[in-house]
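Question: Hello, beginner here. Any chance you could explain the protein record under this note? Any guidance would be welcome.
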Amino acid sequence: MKLIKLFILLRILKEEPSKIDNLLFMDTPNCRFWNHLAQTRNAGEKKSHEIERIINSLLPEEPSEFQRFWAFNIRKSWEAPLAELMHLCLLAQLKANQKNLPLQKVVIFSPFTPLFIHWGLKEKFSEVNLQGFFEIRFFIYNLGALYTNFRSFFEFIVKFNSPLTKHDSKSDPARFGVGAAWGTKGSEGGRLDDLFWWRKSSLPGNRVAYLYDRGDIHPKLSEVENLKSLGIQPVVINSRLAGDWPQLSCDTRQKKPLSLLICDLFRTVKLTFKSISRKTLEKRVISQVNWRLHKLNRLASVFKLLNIKGVFHHDEAGFDDVTLACKLAGGARIGTHWSCFNGVCEVNRSHDVFFIWGKHDAKIINGAGSVSKHLIISGCMPLENSKKVAHEKAEVIAKTMRNEGVKYLVSIFDCGVPMPNFYNFFLRWLLEDPCLGILIKPKGEFFFKKMGSDVRTVFDQALRTGRIYLLDEDASPADASRVSDFSVGIGSFSAVVVAALHGARIFYLDYERLNQGPQKPYCTLHSLGEKRCVFYDPESLKQAVLEYIDNPETNPCLGDASPVLDEFDPFRDGKASERIGEYISWYLEGLDKNLEKDVALQEATQKYAAKWGAEKVIRNSQT
């Protein structure tokens, strides 16, 4: 925004530009979201050797595996902003065509422009006027590293004679840390919480620490009391996030020798000066390493102080600080993903152990280049997720609609981004067809913003028919699909796959035509053939539904995904949380027997394979 104000002051811009509300075009044939993600990942993989070379020169004393891990995560942290820049270039092309302007008149400024060009992504938008500008982030990273290291040094001097809180973590049993994100209320509200796996395990509460490390999530009285009643220790990683609970802050002041503090400070100064004199790519890598080294060491010191030997954490995208800190502390990161993936994107996970729904996700994660040593099928976690009140309301509404003449009910699921065309189509269909009823299960908040102001008028008209119902935002897709004849999703497979696992007939609206681009190898739903579960436009979907309603024998398999459900979840028993919790318990049992981390993980994986089947372990440390 400051740059915009400067351009207006210099009369480069005549007026303040409008904000981009819809960058992804998810509900139009112009959508390239998943294809752009695949292209940036593929481009990054081709250039990964350059990052590895720079890391090797910066951290020569580290093991080669650790160096590769650094390079992998730096590359991963760049892929999302580069994909966003591809979306912007596409937007520039579309806007230029709409306004009949030459592309040279449409300028995009981005600090990632040099990298965009270096990775060969500019070739796909050769006519777009793409300009770089001063990358302030280099200096922020370096100044942040200098500040934190100088502060640590002076804190040591000032507090040299002050007593530290004595705590011998070696006398404690190994703990498992859980990052705070979705709360600890259990599944009563309709969603699984942060402790979903622990509630199904035999692990006592005193073996778990609940970690507050997000700026937007602070300890609350009710939550702290609930954690203490469960025997779980709440810990605030950063004292600035403690709010009314400073006593929960973790004192990470270690008895680190002054000589090591000086070495850290010297290394930071050296890296800062080195980044100033290097070219853009090296500058980007060095400044990021400089900042994250201190950040990782600080997080690792928390894990060591609390004897945390494993972490389950919500943060997945971008640079994986948590896994690196775990490695520094001698622990392991174990995790999963709530959603079902459409294709390769930022799913190149680096957890020590990663649980997935089924082979569909395994194929994508392997294709994305994940470095997780243990890749294990657990089944679909959201299958256990249902909001009883929401489902009961939906049942009553559906029954009322059918009694009043509705012949077919359609549930529609958005994916959390603006999609006015998607909603406009179904709302107008409802207004034109008195036999249609619609249940809407939105993802996230701001439902009307995603719909758009123009479509809101149509929605108000639809409400007056009494044939449309908006479920709670925290309801499960299954709460709607179980009382509907068909369920329609867009942007993400997750909602419709959950519906299909509950026995629903499903449709995925694929404006992007994923099976005709780089994501083709991962199009499981598309493999069922045409006019079944995937449609490229809503008009053909509507026609197929009306033909089926008139005569089901014309297309008896319409919406039936049963032939590929094993690919998404071979269990389908609602016990994914139990399996994950059991694995974590086995891992800690191994540590209790004084096994090394890697040995304890391998033993837990072997137990999992013996109980649930060897085919459920896609990868382990010995494969």
Observations:
- The longest strand covers residues 408-413.
